[in-house]
Design brief:
984 residues, alpha+beta, Ubiquitin-like (UB roll), 16-stranded antiparallel β-sheet, four-stranded mixed β-sheet, 17 helices, 45 strands
Amino acid sequence: MKRFGLLLSILGFTVAVAAAAPEDYEGRPVRAIEFEPEPQPYSQEYLLEILPVKAGPALQLADVRASIERLYRTGRYADIRADARVADGGVVLRFITRGNYFIGHVSVSGVSQPPNEGVLVNATHLDLGHLYTEAATQQAINDLEQVLQSNGFYQTTITPVFEHDPITEQVKIRFVIKTDERARYRKALITGNPERAPEEIVETTHWKGWFGWKKVTDVRTEDGVQRVRRSYEKQDRLEARVGLEKMDWDSDTNRVQPALDIEGGPKIRVITVGASISKGKLRQLVPVFEEQSVDRDLLVEGANNLREYLESQGYFHAKVDFATKSMDGKQADGVPAVETIEYRIERGGRDKVGLVAIRGNRYFDTQTIRERLYVRAASLLEFRYGRFSDALVRQDVDAISALYRSNGFRDVEISPRTVYGYHGKAREIAVYYDIKEGPQWLVANLDIRGVSEENREAVLNLIQSQQGEPFSDLDTAIDHDNVLDYYFNHGYSGAAFSWSFTPAKEAHRVNLEYAIQEGTPIFLRQFLLSGLETTNPELVRARLALHDGDPLSRSRLLETQRRLYDLGVFASVDVALQDPEGEERDKYVLLDMEEAREYTFTYGFGAEIAKIGGCESCLDQPAGATGFSPRASFGVTRRNFLGDAHVISFQSRVSDLEQRAVLSYDIPQFRGSPKIDLLFSGLFDDSRDVRTFSSRRREGSVQVGQKLSKASTMLYRFAFRTVSVSDLKVSPELIPLFSQPARIGIMSASYVQDRRDDPSDTHRGIFNTLDAGLASKIFGSQSDFTHFLGRNATYYPIGEGSRYVLARSLTFGWLQPFRAGENIPLPERFFGGGAQSDRAFPEDQAGPRDLETGFPLGGNAILVSQTELRFPLIGENITGAWFWDAGNVYSRLQDISFRVRQDDLGDFNYMVHSVGFGIRYKTPVGPVRLDLAYSINPPTFYGFQGTLDQLVACSSTAPPATGCVKTVQQISHFQFHFSLGQAF
């Protein structure tokens, strides 16, 4: 048996073949093709399919070269050699290979925070799925050492530990770090011209605490440098330069001396002449404060900002320029001691925009165009003088032009014109936008090339620029994105899209051509999971949106990430292709997950200021008296319990009004279903009701949540609770009735439909909730009754740009005992009134009252209507609302009445109305709300001046003793409510 060989250099790799001359073997038939080692990254069938050299035909060295090149392009091989032997009158060709390895999960251990593991892993710059090299590992070690040194660890040993998987060619890398004690700071070395005492600068850094020098961390070092910079800024030294030159470590003492190079620079004063601008507004408008630098570009930008600010105040012809002045001599280095930047302002007269008119538009209605304008006419509250400037006019022209061009009007012309002396008023202007639409360009013919038959129908359905449709660059850009999204989501990661057009024979028509290069589809070979320590891998696999052999869809990879994040147990989920540059039909996809912290602790302190009902025993002020109640909260959450994404949570709140604890066990995505959640909870609550009674509640419940759609959710719930009341402020004869402990077992279901655009501050949409329940002896309840509560809220944008919103809400509910005359326990009744209900009442003050004491008793029915007109008030962040509330809590369903008059002091079954005005201030967590309400027809009732013991004594004497006189009281006509979030 003979072997032959050649020396071939292909793509920088050496192909060695034995000593025989190639002409002795070239042309002989290839009897077989073998691979060594036998386990290869791909199956034997796939390798033989992709190789240009085939078994059977005569051997050609060009085919061998092409085969080696094709194997290298897969990215799977670090080295390939071709060998052959003569057999059966032909040649057996053998490829001897050495595979690559690719980076999998990277972790770091052995370091006390800071820095945390995430920072250290990012510092390695070892990208998931990319080719592993020894050089990259050494560079990662160097980068880790730098990060550790910046955090005070100067004596470190870093040992990489590798875990190779030859089947998937993946390598996991764990960097084991051993460190000595973290170094501490010592007195900083100050160089340059600081213009301040070094001791003062060192004190500013806060690197030294009460008990000596602090330990070095990167965050603490950077914070110290920033403190020094800010201290110079406060002294108006805007050009001060503070640089951290180095950190000198002394190995004998394990101390680090920071070296700060500081140039104090001159004091810079920014003033205005000709108009008074507050210092805070100057800091906001002149960028030299933010950039801590003074150059002409920044000064020009400041002048432009000042002019735009003055224009927003109605000074539409304001002029702003600037000059710099040096004062108070020179410093030692020749730098002026004080430099003044003087902005010279000529405000001119204050004008008002009386009219913004749009003319010449036929294709679009005026309102559609007006919504895109920045220039605004004056309004009573939001824009007192209107909004106008030359820059805003230019923006409007661009916006209108873009609107028309996106609909095929390629020759549109917008001519703005400003007229002074509108309606004969010297200080009033009108702004006109004259539009020449021109012809609309249409697509005469669309030619799509490069699309295979299997994809043609789907691609055609995505195209907007069809024959006869308007032609615009925007539509072609949308087509580009839609078509490529389709291909990327079907595995064609190399797809490309280009377009061109030529004029058609007809006027204002174009022939449009789309050229598409589909490329070769890529399929999922297998998901490779890493980073799981506690989490059950099957939990992850059940949520994969792709399966082996599926086209590699970008949208499904994103859906996989979303599903895993929805579990609530991962801090990060990284998705990457293994060897993304390799030309492979089937790709490994790496899912590298970082588990979130298992335990989360929360705590807080606060206070409640509200009408909290006075003392516990006295019966004064049944409508409530303003009081103060401090409170504290504590919670602990254990996530990913048992590795199955279960969550155990304990939350508590303590105040002199309430002591509450809730223990819950949450099973999200129950039994692998992304639409089903299961929740078990236990409630322990002792509260002193702010008006009528104190209660003690013990409750256990189980709830199943079902996601019906993006907007709709169903909740199925069973709750069993025992409730007892005490400190009742009611008539003595009612105390035995209301003070009995109640045991309630109730089965209920809730439906929630939320189609609001922004739940915290809604401008359009609908919000519906329905809750129905049955309490029955079947469920262990001592009372048999049905429960229903529903709310419908709608939001309608009106006016310009949806800045005006008409919002309305209707709440209706009732409780119905099974047997006539049966009493529903006091804590189960409806209580209403307050910031989220009828604002004619203080919190929970609506409805029936005790005829002796005047305290609210709740009712078995509720009907409340709320209507608000929300509108812009001042600027972008302050809005207002006119509101009208009407409703009440009623004794029974059949007692609901629309009467507006109270028949007598014992009648509470009538509708109470209030009107008012509210202010909302926009914050990142929702609007802060203050509502001032006037109650048109508040209830009047009897109250008792004195204590509960005095009431009992008065009730036991006949006739009543002296002083046992009821007084007539009334809910105040004026109410105010302060809260976070809209009323509904």
